[in-house]
Amino acid sequence: MIKDLNYYNKKIKEIWPDESHIGKELIFYIKEKLDLNDLSLFVDNHKFSKEEENSINDFFEKKKNGIPLDYILQKSSFYQNDFFVDERVLIPRPETEILVDYINNLNLSPGMKILDAGVGSGCIGASLAKLNPETLIYGVDYSLAALQVAKINKQKFNLSNFYLINSIWLNSLKENMFDIIVSNPPYVAPFDPHLEELKHEPISALVAEQNGLRDFDLISSQAIKVLKKDGLLAFEHGNSQANEVRNIMINYGFKNIVLINDYQSQPRITLGKK
Ligand code: GLN
């Protein structure tokens, strides 16, 4: 039996008759991992060596266990950079790029201090640090495992202006310290059925009590102190949480509340000023 791409495509159709994206993921995997290009795959009809076969079998095993491709490749593309990721952190989502883009397009002046609260892989903080080398970007996380991943990305992008701190939300930070605080906190409600699809991602980065709202409350209550006067707080939230997040922020004294939609026209980001 000749083991070329057709062979594996047939196998995918047998195992996952209704999931066409797995075929695309396999091609992506092969190009990344086995360093083959379109020409060899589609024109020269490359026959896989024993070693390559083993690697492809590994892909199949992992997909059967429902592992997302980004974890298999330990790599995730976010805001034009490839971040290292593994199961210690959430896989960066495209919606979060809107948050980064918004902050990146503000007039960030040299010396500005920005905090990424719940830094995870570092995708928000490291992207901002890389594009704005004159600013000082801090990332806090209470998960030491997540901070290890953020550190890998800090080193990967050689960021001397990206500081990582172990802290429960803003507990370890001084008052009137930051110009901007950004956060994509856990916001999925406990027992949300959607969690089944996310079972390989760290639950602590996804789920929050009070129907997913608890951390918006905690962070807002601390951010109003930790921000400088007129400082900006920017949250990513679930598409049904905009009103609640707005009310929480107003409740702690934030003003000039702005709501931004994501690519699916869903309300996704809320900002307010101290
Ligand atoms: N956007 C993620 C999801 O629903 C959740 C991220 C989060 O809780 N911060 O897949």
Give a structural overview.
Helix 6 runs parallel beside helix 7. A hairpin with a 2-residue loop joins strand 1 and strand 2 (81-83). This protein is α/β, with parallel strands linked by helices and 274 residues long. It has a 7-stranded mixed β-sheet, with helices on both faces. The protein has helices at 5-15, 21-33, 38-43, 50-64, 69-73, 94-104, 123-131, 144-156, 209-212, 214-226, 242-251, and strands at 76-78, 81-83, 113-117, 136-141, 162-166, 178-183, 227-236, 255-261, 267-273. Helices cover 40% and strands 19% of the residues. The chain has 11 helices and 9 strands. The structure holds glutamine (GLN). Residues 93, 184, 186-188, 198, 206 line the site of glutamine (GLN).
Helix and strand topology:
Layout: H1 5-15, H2 21-33, H3 38-43, H4 50-64, H5 69-73, E1 76-78, E2 81-83, H6 94-104, E3 113-117, H7 123-131, E4 136-141, H8 144-156, E5 162-166, E6 178-183, H9 209-212, H10 214-226, E7 227-236, H11 242-251, E8 255-261, E9 267-273
Parallel strand pairs: 3-4, 3-6, 4-5, 6-7
Antiparallel strand pairs: 1-2, 7-9, 8-9
Helix pairs in contact: 2-4, 6-7
The protein binds glutamine.
Glutamine binds near residues 93 and 184.
